[in-house]
Amino acid sequence: MKEDRVRLALQELFGPQVGIGVTDPRSDNYLLMDSEKEAVARAVPKRLREFSAGRAAGREALSEIGFRRSAIPRSRDRTPVWPAGIVGSISHCDSLCLAAVCHIKTWRSIGLDIEGDAPLQKEAWPIILTQQEEQDLKKVPRWRRARRIKALFSIKEAVYKAQYPLTGEICDFHTLNVTIDGNRFEAMFLQDVGSFQTGFVATGGFAEVDRYVVSCCMMEDR
């Protein structure tokens, strides 16, 4: 099943100390805990299903590292509030919702992203790619370029999600220059972002699973 293949890919990318959850954001079967309901009190049905699936994936991931029935409310900046001593990330596309969590002693922050097979509009490519990435893309076969750009987009999303809990800073795609080697990546900060100074390199991995691209980033303190 696609869920099992995506789960396995994330387990290989994150390693055994990170709990993984996988749910279906199209399902109506996931129940929210009381402290989570306020965040979606006025949500349309689609958003309610996505949010509920995210919390269910989060609880599944938490159970893998020893937490049971933990609520995951939403903070004022709309990010998940994990149990004390835990860091994590949630991401979804139209047909899968993922969560990853770990103890703060394992990683200070983690970021996760999943993208489906909908192509990125060519008009968006200059927004995503740095000049160096555009040059690197010329080395990729033409038939693979759209998929590589989707991977770069996903990687930058994962890095952003990892850095945000540590900095509280919003940054754009040109803040990072990504180089890919196999299924691993290095993302260099091209400007200061909070405690991450220009030249700092974040690392992680990505995988293409069926029609999905999944990316993860793990960070330590700066």
* CATH classification, class level of the largest domain: Alpha Beta
Written as H for each helix and E for each strand, in order along the chain, the element string is HEHHEEEHHHEEEE
Helix- and strand-based class?
alpha+beta
Low-confidence stretches: none
Do you know the CATH architecture of the largest domain? Alpha-Beta Complex
Q: What number of structural domains do the residues give?
A: 2
Say what the CATH topology of the largest domain is. Answer: Ribosomal Protein L22, Chain A
For the biggest sheet, the summary is:
5 strands, antiparallel
Widest sheet: strand ordering = 4-8-7-6-5
Binding site for Mg(2+): 113-115
Pfam families: 4PPT_N, ACPS
Protein name: COG2977 Phosphopantetheinyl transferase component of siderophore synthetase
GO biological process, one term: enterobactin biosynthetic process
Structural commentary:
The chain is α+β, with helices and mostly antiparallel strands and 222 residues long. It folds into two domains: 2-106, 4'-phosphopantetheinyl transferase domain (Ribosomal Protein L22, Chain A, Alpha-Beta Complex), CATH 3.90.470.20; 114-219, Ribosomal Protein L22, Chain A (Alpha-Beta Complex). Helices cover 33% and strands 25% of the residues. The chain has six helices and eight strands; from the N terminus they run H-E-H-H-E-E-E-H-H-H-E-E-E-E. It has helices at residues 2-14, 34-37, 45-64, 125-128, 131-137, 142-167; strands at 19-23, 86-92, 97-103, 109-115, 176-181, 184-189, 201-209, 212-219. The strands form two sheets. It has a five-stranded antiparallel beta sheet with strand order 4-8-7-6-5. A three-stranded antiparallel beta sheet has the order 1-3-2. The protein is globular, with a radius of gyration of 17 Å. The mean pLDDT is 94. One of its GO terms (molecular function) is holo-[acyl-carrier-protein] synthase activity. Mg(2+) binds at residues 113-115. CoA binds at residues 47, 55, 91-92, 113, 157, 161. This is COG2977 Phosphopantetheinyl transferase component of siderophore synthetase. One of its GO terms (biological process) is enterobactin biosynthetic process.
